[in-house]
Amino acid sequence: MSQKNNKLQIYLPIAFSVVLIIGIWIGSLLVSDNNGAKSLLPVGNHTYNKSGDILDYIIQDYVDTVNREKLEDEVISGFLDELDPHSMYISKKEFNAVNDPLLGSFEGIGISFRIEKDSITVINPIPGGPSEKVGLMAGDRIVMVDDTLVAGIGITNNDAIRKLKGKKGTKVKVTNFRRGVPKLIDFTITRDVIPTYSLDVAYMVNENVGYIKLNKFSATTYDEFMEAAVQLQDEGMTKLILDLRGNPGGLLQAAIEIGDEFLEEGQLIVYTHGKNRPKRHAFATDEGDFENLDVAVLIDENSASASEIIAGALQDNDKGIIIGRRTFGKGLVQEQISLPDGSAIRLTTARYYTPTGRCIQKPYTNGDSESYYEEYYHRYINGEMMSKDSIHFNDSLKYTTPKGKVVYGGGGIMPDVFVPMVTDTIHTFYNVLANKGLIFQFAFDYTDRNRAKLNEFKDFETFDRSFNMDSNTYNELIDFAEDKGISQSDDKIEISRDKIATLFKAFVGRNVLDEDGFYPIYHEIDTTFKRAVQEIRIL
What we know:
Pdz3 Domain, 2-enoyl-CoA Hydratase, Chain A, domain 1, 6-stranded mixed beta sheet, 18 helices
């Protein structure tokens, strides 16, 4: 794949540092008045650094010992919290956890896990990773890490991550319980670089419709997308469903590169502008591989940032169709600045605008992040999730695409085809079990009990053809639900049977074959996906 040399390069400027403005002595004096009270006075012509001087005063004279680093962290966080909901301080301790998803990799032992019955339970070792190489298996319970007990002590996900992640080349010993093995098993694992993938799944829906789901935009997203899309094209794809539901965004450059693949040379993808940042435009090059491909983009209220850039770019250029519900509404651009002590700040420096000139940033009040994120619930209460007619836009935010389609700014991307949130009053038994996570839990326990048999399925086609939820298993699920306090009439239980069986099969498929085993089955009951298949046929 050729490089896009003419494209706007908007990268996070993480390569440079600024001097920390908190806690630095810049020439102030402490002087006492006649009553013993102290005041801060500037010395010479230096700018008066009130924050730094106060911190120095606290450290020097406060009655108890104060942790300066912790105090500085809280002060800086307080500064940024007052600006906007997306400017943030990243402490040295948090730095890797926050930045690893954008880099597309981290250093650790290479497993996906969940805390199950107060144990770190291996969902799957990452293929080719250090855990798989030494023999860790799905279903293993990690009992000890470096001779420290981690089972039955109330360990959290974050605590587990901190114990298992570490620098490449370092070693960690884990002691595992494995079902059917009488003794605990010790493994010594050498940590390595572990890739994190932006692409959940890519598969052919039918003879000419392909499907790709992206979960974020990182440094590796474009390459992952291109590899999958080219493969699907080789398999006959002429139409693509690009699923960005639940995708919170990430690197702006990744969105620009993917958007370029669908748009013709010279078409505007996005532009950014800030008080101290000049306008910067990103235009499509002549190297797009999918300019003639019909595309449907799936979005919802959790699609944000880079996801909205792609949806807005295609919508404003009258390319393809946008399907789902109104997106989150994040139109602010952050730059990351590394600090000398290993911490960093992400500061909002610009807004981005779609090709028609829309800023889709939803309103916010400085210092009130809580209301900003609770806006999601107001959408639900106001009926917007269920009815397009409940959504009202200000006429002053109206824009028109080249082909005359009316679009709006001021709060997310409104889809071309609205698909309401499912409010199913028929499958009530299914709804209760799914919302409480009981189908997920039952499927996990089922997989754990039957792992040896299920591991015989090596590909999706065989699994899909040969595995289904039988009556005995369905009755076990009903008993499981009753033990959890959930009961329904026989009629409602029977009405929900097919839908429950489909979700159960999808969860078991995920436990055995990762996302390749989940999405093709789940899509049988996914209303937005089914609508996309219907709409893309007529493009």
